[in-house]
Write a structure and sequence with these properties.
Length: 355
């Protein structure tokens, strides 16, 4: 890395419990998400991302609306999606919504495009799952044309074509920061390089450093397509408390229940506590523990994968809002300084052979 690591947060607006163990109504969860983002801005974090879902256990179906509300109550934190399911949306409308967010936030908007890991949006908006690949490829192709902010001529199979049409509003800077979110598919990595877009790795299981071959593939593909070096980010679940034991004990029941609920839909077996402890360990994909433990783990993967940004997926099923707020405060006030100090200490100096 040649610049300071950005540290961000992601949420899906998971429906959380109240103090009596009852689910909060979605409208209250949405208000809590805004409060969480305001705190993230106050403690100096760099990015706040909101994912799109269309189901009972996640409250956010219109991320840009929530992000606009956050923009009005924050000053510096960048705001974006995590991810926007482009396959079941319209590229023109996605660009317009994020360009509008960029305007009202004074240039702080960005978008992470992906296919999403849930498919509820396809029947909801009238798309066929057997066009899963075609929809994303065509719509991404059109979206990258729109990023030029010039008149666009485009033809495809999945939506009406454009003939020398401009899309409004333009961004003030002329460049809407756009990432491609991938879950581990080499094809998706090459696609990001082909379109010259930064790569966001969704690492939610296994060992993060095992993604190093995909990072290498991305760099090689960028070179093949005559692209310059671009940022690489990582999105992973995690939770921070005063001690490792407290963080794991507080996270475990809520995270396990979420995994079991989603697992029933996908044919997964239940998550054991042993598996959770392994994933929460030094080499796993869960960034859970004390500020020191989480900071050490983030710095390790940032150096190992050459990251420009690390986003902590801090919402974890039904884990209550009050505990999430404590985790956010610790992430910004304690974890972030520790990560940056370690990366600065390990950075090569002029004349160092690592440069």
């Amino acid at each position: 890395m040649t610049h300071e690591l950005e540290l961000g947060l992601d949420t899906f607006g998971d429906v959380t419990w109240d103090a009596d163990g009852r689910p909060l109504p979605q409208w209250q969860v949405l208000r809590n998400v805004v409060a969480e983002a305001v705190l993230a801005d106050q403690v100096g974090l760099d990015f706040f991302g909101i994912g799109e879902h269309h189901r009972e256990d996640f409250s956010v179906s219109a991320p840009e609306v929530v992000l606009a509300a956050i923009a009005g109550q924050t000053e510096r934190i960048r705001l974006g999606s995590a991810v926007t399911v482009l396959s079941s949306d319209d590229p023109v409308r996605v660009f317009q919504r994020f360009a509008t967010l960029d305007a009202v936030s004074n240039g702080r908007a960005e978008v992470i495009l992906g296919r999403g890991s849930f498919t509820e949006s396809f029947p909801l908006f009238g798309y066929e799952l057997d066009q899963y690949e075609l929809l994303f490829e065509e719509k991404l192709n059109l979206f990258t044309e729109l990023l030029t902010e010039e008149p666009v001529t485009w033809q495809g199979e999945t939506r009406a074509g454009l003939d020398r049409q401009r899309v409004f509003p333009p961004t003030e800077s002329g460049a809407l920061r756009t990432w491609i979110g991938v879950g581990g598919s080499p094809q998706s990595v090459i696609r990001a390089a082909h379109y010259g877009l930064p790569l966001m790795l969704a690492i939610i299981g296994g060992e993060p450093l095992s993604f190093a071959p995909l990072v290498d593939l991305y760099h090689r593909a960028l070179a093949k397509f005559d692209r310059t070096t671009l940022p690489i980010g990582q999105h992973s679940p995690g939770y921070i408390a005063a001690t490792d034991a407290q963080a794991r004990d507080e996270m475990w029941p809520h995270f396990a229940a979420m995994q079991e609920r989603i697992g029933r839909e996908r044919g997964w077996g239940p998550m054991s506590r042993d598996r959770f402890e392994h994933d929460a360990g030094p080499d796993g994909a869960l960034f859970v523990g004390s500020p020191q433990t989480v900071a050490t783990k983030i710095a390790k993967v940032a150096e190992g994968l050459g990251l420009s940004r690390f986003d902590l997926k801090y919402s974890l099923g039904t884990l209550p809002h009050e505990k999430l707020m404590t985790s956010i405060e610790l992430y910004g006030s304690e974890v972030a300084p520790l990560v940056r100090a370690r990366l600065a200490a390990n950075a090569p100096t002029p004349g160092d052979p690592r440069r």
